[in-house]
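$ run holo --ligand "flavin-adenine dinucleotide" --emit tokens
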Amino acid sequence: MSDLDQFRQETRAWLEENCPQTMRTPMRSEKEATWGGRNPEYAHPDQKLWLDRMAARGWTVPDWPTPYGGGGLTPGETKILREELARIRARNPLHSFGISMLGPALLKYGTEEQKLGHLPKIARGEIRWCQGYSEPNAGSDLAGLQTSAEDAGDHFIVNGQKVWTSYADKADWIFCLVRTDKAVKQGGISFLLFDMASEGVSTRPILLISGNSPFCETFFDNVKVPKANLVGDLNKGWDVAKYLLGHEREMISAMGLGATGSDALIEAARKGADPLLRAQIALFQVRAQAFKAMSERFIDELKAGRAHPAQPSMMKYYGTELNKTRHELLMAAGGSDALEWESDATHGGAPARTWLRTKANSIEGGTSEIQLNIIAKRILDLPS
Amino acid sequence: MPLYLNDDQTLLRDTARDFVAEHAPVSHLRGLRDANDTTGFSRDLWREFADLGFTGILIPEAQGGLGLGHVEAGIVLEEIGRNLSPSPFLTTALAAVEALKGTAHADRWFPGILAGETVAALAIDEGPKHNARITLQATRAGNGYRLTGTKQFVHHGHVADLLLVAAQTDAGTALFAVPADAAGLTANPERLADASIAARLTFEGVEVDADAIVGEGDAALTRLLAAARTGASAELVGVGAATLDMTVGYLKQRKQFGAVIGSFQALQHRAAHLYSELEVARAAVLKAQQLLDAGTEAADAVAVAKAMTGLATTLAVQEGVQMHGGIGMTDEYDLGFYMKRARILTELFGDTNFHADALARAAGY
Ligand SMILES: Cc1cc2nc3c(=O)[nH]c(=O)nc-3n(C[C@H](O)[C@H](O)[C@H](O)COP(=O)(O)OP(=O)(O)OC[C@H]3O[C@@H](n4cnc5c(N)ncnc54)[C@H](O)[C@@H]3O)c2cc1C
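-- output --
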């Protein structure tokens, strides 16, 4: 038996023993996601159990090095773990912007001290992060941001406003883009980390069309940030920001896989869809399964260093558009059952709220239009 | 197995790319069409394919072939698609070899295929749409069978040496290997929209021996079709990729309103969308090929590959012609050839709707 076969067997046995049955059912609503943090919220005690067991093995971040809280797995082993988790339909043990966004950026640009200080806490779900990128006048044109960080000797003084900061009111720390030079656009941005409990930080939730309010306006009023919290060089934050965005896009593109959503769609179709809806669902299934192959290829290429640097844009574009279609079809298949907004039968209106939430997939992390611009310019090499 | 080409496969692709582009570019197809050629392809070119070992890609090494798989066959087919090269590769070196491999027929037919002498054709369809229903009758007659019925959309059916015929016996469906010179068999070649030639075949009590059966039940036919569909998908990827290249090239060169039209965002976004569809289709094809090579259950993946390449390449040729403007409509420009070949390959062995329907049935709705 090859090493990988053996790894698969052992992993399967471990998961069989350690993944609680309750964590092998699809999440019924956003509220069942595990985010960790200083003030963790668990809808079910098994969430904590599952997180702790996975974190103890470093399997919340299986391919990170072990000194940083990772599992130290090879790409081949990581792929097997992912497959085995999917096989038993295990829930994600930890939803985390730390894992999917900040972590990779710190691994590449962080000092050893920053890595040791932040990564293990991310891996164990002890600190919950939020992303301070967008501002009222800097959305798609992100580099137009104005929040400033002024040099005050051993620290910076940060002033300004962010917007659309997801879960800012629940986050412990923020990774934040700030302006450290007003004279140059991209070349005057720096990448800062700081505690949301710092004096001068305040947040105000924004209600969404889904009836939920996962994101906030975030205000900084003379916030003191130690210089040791600067990631990368001063005024070189744009490089870090773009690298992180690639990972954010990668994460968001996974929504196109929406395995549980697809199961629900097929289930709904089995109950009897009219012929036209059946045809639409079947054609959707073609794209969804082809995209699943594309995702596998993308991850394999990424791990082997073969992916085009702009490929996350294509994945994000395709995956999010696909996910929106999936939820339009789910609503069409569900009929009036899917429209209830608060009932127990719908777990608090999950179908309708999720459907509305997915509309943001093609906006957050850079809009579909921006992804198409990137593909056109960087992959197809079309002129400006 | 990672879902990308390994180093050996990349090397094969480079060889195939150079060879096909040099020996059978679109001008080769145009030449055959303009000369009103009635064979449908070049026998010399088929022998050159053999010299390079391409015709033996799927033939086991013990029988003189390269002993490679569907991924490798697909690599050659993608280049055939890219250049619209008329060739019996898909029907012969892929589908027929896959069907005959491991049967008593292999010894008889493989040497000719390896030498680039033998051409096989697939007699599967009986109506204008690919359909699982087979009505061509194979009735017991002495030691063998008598075949009666018709087939259509049989590429190379008028010049083939070997026909693989799906028929209905008392016991169910079966696949027959029928020498093309059998008495009672007539072939009426018809030129198709893309200048290729497909025959309508009539079987009037064609007598074959009992050992003409390649396989009984659905399994043999399923294996043949899985190979043929995956191969057609690979060829479609080539057609789509070439169309995208031509279109992007044109967008960078054509000027209107004092700017290259590729600087207009309306066109950039459509090109970027098209690129995305084609990449997704390409991944789906490689997935199906790898599953077939691993001997794993691949029915869904094959259906996805054929349906998805149909969607993506159809979009590629439609957007290609539109973004080229008037020149895309002219016979003199090559783009139209791509549109026509895409339509034929999309229809072959089941179109997008056929395969989406198959997926839906498999999922139980
Ligand atoms: C659910 C959700 C969560 C988010 N979470 C976070 C977060 O945690 N942290 C954070 O910092 N930000 C977050 N964002 C913000 C997100 O990144 C921005 O909304 C996004 O980048 C778009 O910016 P905008 O909303 O200002 O739209 P605009 O940039 O004003 O765009 C408006 C429209 O114009 C189009 N457009 C703009 N420029 C171009 C162009 N050059 N070519 C073609 N079309 C163009 C856009 O595609 C869009 O359709 C989140 C957003 C959402 C919806």
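-- notes --
Residues A 130-134, 139-140, 164-166, 215, 360, 363-367, 369-370, 373 surround flavin-adenine dinucleotide (CB under 6 Å).
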